[in-house]
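Before a colleague's protein record goes any further, I have to sign it off. Would you go through it and say whether the fold makes sense for this chain? Take the sequence as given and treat only the tokens as open to question. The record follows directly below this note.
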Amino acid sequence: MTAKRLAAVVSDGTVRAVGRDLIEIEAVAASWAEYEALLPRLRAASATGIEMGDRRCTVTLRLGGAAIREDEHDSVTLIERAEAALANARGNGIDGSVPERGAVASELATELELAIERGELLMLYQPKFHVRRQKVTCAEALIRWRHPERGLIPPIEFIPVAEEAHLIDRLTLWTIRQVIEDQRKMRSLGHDQRLFVNISGQLLADAVFVREACALVASSGATLGFEVTETSVIRDPVSAIANLQVFADIGITIAIDDYGAGLSSLAYLKQLPAVELKIDKLFVTQLTSSNRDPLIVRSTIDLAHALEMEVVAEGVESHAALALLTVMGCDMVQGFLISRPVSIDALVAFLDDESWHQGGQENRGPFNRLAPTWKRG
């Protein structure tokens, strides 16, 4: 019903329901202003509610969108940007969109190039908590940009610009160097956790980047992991899979990020040299309020274990979700329940503090009491 109402608003495009609570809209806009004007019309189309027998249900849209010029149309890039914008909208509670391409992006690209040289970038780290071991075993590195005038710029705004301006290789190499340095600091303070870096799909077929990244990691003795999405592999599967194997051969752990959110395919999954699979937070945040999401998560965990992968659930924000994931056999969890992304110094302090570990031990009782409920379900 909601999809039909939205279709009436989108005159030049397609609207289709692609999930229980997900609608995909593809439209052609003559300008960025026309695209932005479409968003309130879509929200208004769903605001009247739906009659369900003797009840009236309201529908709330969380909109995340992306745009790309017609002369550079790339469906994979467009899907990636739209998924990132939707994830940003869900996480922040506000609508998200990728910045307009053109003059604004060009200016931002120039400033980003200078930011790399001036040290305006910083790394934050979000720990991954191993459920069975009851300890943090690794962490994901998340880049941020401290702009001198605009303040803290999130990656949803500058990563697409870096990709389009061909700066993503320099940005990622800077990230790897910084993560190596931060890991040395952690080791000197008694913490030897593997740190994971997100790798853009553009770089998986870039032979020069692969050589430079391998040289950095191999010469440093660092224990790193690279997180990639399946969607990124689709650009050039042969080169991507071959280069991921090159990374794996020198000891870099390969993790599949955002599994289930995009173009997930068993055909690619079985070919990737990955030892870790991250379930997208789209399924985790509604784990305790959905009938289908627990089934999807449980089947994904079983599949990953059959392929000898460990499973990470991202977006864990409640003890109830952690309880279900524990019973399902999920290996690791990541999310605000454990920790928000923090600086390297704060991460070390977090690891030094034993109180969170004791809290995890105390919560085992409630987790176990929920096990029969899940199994009956």
